[in-house]
Amino acid sequence: MTDEPDDVHYDRLYRATDRPPWEIGGPQPALAEVLDTGVRGPRVLDVGCGTGELALALARLGHDVTGVDISSVAIGQARAKAAGAGLPVRFEVCDATAIPV
């Protein structure tokens, strides 16, 4: 266990490799199964979005998506992916345990 803050820890993990083990190049399988049938409403908040794979998939389906993650490195990668795909997803650095209401 490390004593570094969570944001520093995750930024370091994202910088240490081209793809952390939880990044699989698409939405996690359990979430991918519900993309077409289990998402309600036009607006979606993807908490802990990482580099944005789920948020981008949701945007491709027409949802208005905001993704948040504690890692500024992951959010930078997510923003670059969205820009490259021409998708209007908002990505913000935010600690999910302190989301303002």
Short key terms for the protein model shown above:
about 100 residues, Rossmann fold, 3-stranded parallel β-sheet, about 15% strand
CATH names the topology of the domain at 42-96 as Rossmann fold
Whole-angstrom Rg: 14 Å
Low-confidence stretches: none
Helix content: 25-40%
Describe the main β-sheet briefly. Answer: 3 strands, parallel
The number of helical elements comes to 4
Coarse morphology: globular
First-residue to last-residue Cα separation? 31 Å
Q: So what's the CATH class of the domain at 42-96? A: Alpha Beta
Give the overall pLDDT as a whole number: 90
How many DSSP-defined strands? 3
CATH homologous superfamily assignment of the domain at 42-96: Vaccinia Virus protein VP39
For the largest sheet, list the strands in their spatial order: 1-2-3
Estimated structural class: alpha/beta
Tell me the CATH architecture of the domain at 42-96: 3-Layer(aba) Sandwich
Q: Element order, helices and strands?
A: HHEHEHE
Question: What is the fold's blueprint, element by element?
Answer:
Layout: H1 6-16, H2 29-32, E1 43-47, H3 53-60, E2 64-69, H4 72-85, E3 90-93
Could you please describe the fold and organization of this structure?
There is one protein chain. By secondary structure, the protein is an alpha/beta fold. It has a domain of 55 residues: Rossmann fold (3-Layer(aba) Sandwich). Helices cover 37% and strands 15% of the residues. The chain is globular and about 40 Å long. It starts with 5 loop residues before the first helix and ends in an 8-residue tail after the last strand. The model has no long low-confidence stretch (mean pLDDT 90).
